What does this fold into?
Amino acid sequence: MSAAPDPKSSGHMTIWEHLAELRSRLIKVCIAVVVGAVIGWFLWPYLIDFLLRPFHELQPDTDLIATGPLDAFALRIKMSGYIGIALAMPVIMWQLWRFITPALYPHEKKYAIPFTASAVVLFVMGATLAYYVLNPTLNFLIEIGGTDIEPLYTAPSYVNLIVFMMLAFGIGFEFPVVIVALQLIGVVTPRTLLGWWRTAMIVVVVIAAVITPSGDPISMFALAIPMALLYILSIAVGAIVLKLRRRKATKAEQVGTSG
It folds into this structure.
């Protein structure tokens, strides 16, 4: 960071102006989530059909059960909220971006769109992988219990499992975004990260074991292996971006010297 930014261009405000700005952004986010939740209420029948496909592939003639009169209603309310947050995510990201933009330097702002886009794509990839891993995970959990136990899943327990698995995989796939960001701001270098690869693999396995809600080896390794590959990929991406940045800085110096 070379020169200090101009107060107007950098958006310097008083603490009260920051609080007012934050309140305005939060109100807009809440409105977007509420609207999304209303839409989610009507989308719930289609979503539950989608979520039940892995379960029906293993037990085609079995349905989920509810052990209480309010279970189905409470589940629909909760899932409508989750859908509302998902649908409102573009608004949430935009409001967050608008809130932090004044604090960033011009050369930092240009990374916002690539980082946001890559974070969304990686999260969707992780959630999609979790959805397809659920079938072998359920099969493992059923078989490990033995033939004397007949599985009868309640609707909340099944839906919570698949939603939390998709969330865990999505968060796990955000790992390379953090690694690339640390390289760009100079906290670590690609060479350092490459030297830590053995330790990183252990950390990846531990993280995968902790955040997977089922705790079974299938889902754990289904998350750990892609995270390990993404770690290597993030080092390569960071090295390429840093190389391009140095090349651009060298050209700028040469132009300034010749001028």
